[in-house]
Design goal:
Helix content is 42%, strand content 27%. The strands form two sheets. It has a four-stranded antiparallel sheet with strand order 2-3-1-4. The protein is α+β, with helices and mostly antiparallel strands. It is built from five helices and six strands; from the N terminus they run H-E-H-E-E-H-E-E-H-E-H.
């Protein structure tokens, strides 16, 4: 609550393996199901919807496409913040420390790290 309520919104996120269908097919199916945002990446397609429509969107996509890799309510950032290599290294170390804590269940971030920066970090 409070200031974080402006940075993150609770959304339904359903992720599907992209080996079974192409981006256009997923886009059509997800849009028809009621998804408000659709993201296609290397290994997966993601449908994002308002939390109140999560069950309907997930079930519709499951019926038309198949079982998702994951489907759950998540805190989705409203605005991403680009960060440089130095900031990314510090942030990723901090996130690792948080995730290692037994009391922490999930860590969300609004950081946007470019592929080039991630490649530099991974090569170091």
């Amino acid at each position: 609550t409070g200031s974080l309520g402006f940075v993150f919104k609770r959304k339904g996120v359903s992720k599907f393996n992209n080996e079974k269908f192409d981006e256009n097919t997923f886009f059509e199916q997800a849009a028809d199901a009621g998804a408000e945002d659709i993201i296609s990446e290397k290994n997966e397609h993601t449908a994002i919807c308002v939390s109140e429509e999560f069950g309907k969107v997930r079930d519709t996509l499951t019926d038309k496409i198949g079982n998702p890799i994951s489907a759950k309510l998540e805190w989705v950032p409203q605005n991403l913040q680009s960060i440089n290599e130095e900031q990314a290294e510090k942030l990723l170390k901090f996130i690792d420390i948080l995730e290692d804590n037994d009391d922490v269940q999930t860590v969300y971030s609004n950081a946007e790290i470019s592929d080039e920066v991630m490649e530099k970090i991974n090569n170091n």
